[in-house]
Amino acid sequence: MSNTFSEDYLPTLGVDITVKRGVIVDAKPIRIVLMDTAGEEKFGSLRKTYFEGSLGCVAVYDITRPETLKDLDRWLKEYRRVAGDDKVVSVIGNKIDLAGRRAVPEKDGRRYARTQGSDFYEASAKFGGKVIPRIFYNLVQKVLRDISK
Q: Out of 3.40.50.300, 3.10.20.90, 3.40.190.150, 2.60.120.290, which CATH number does the structure's domain 15-147 have?
């Protein structure tokens, strides 16, 4: 969330919060609060606190670990139960830099996103590129459209 990548992976404990100021979407300055929540069950009540009042969600799975795509069902059900069914969700297949170890075909991720009524992207947190900013830009654009209705 800070435009950096570390080879030394440390799982999120609780929640990691980052605030992005000065993001311009549709000629409007936007402040985005990003909350990377821990997936472990013991942090469930903490996650719910952060889901309340949320306007959008980026749900990420690891293309090298099929169980992480299956886990999205549980996380998105929890998210929607707390935040509401009408929230904008984007589904992201991460780690495309590890294509040789891919265990989740792109079509499976795309199909899953479609069942959720979500946009779908594949990306690499390690290499970033233009995809990651586009994911957030598109999500914020949809959120703004929804709240102006």
A: 3.40.50.300
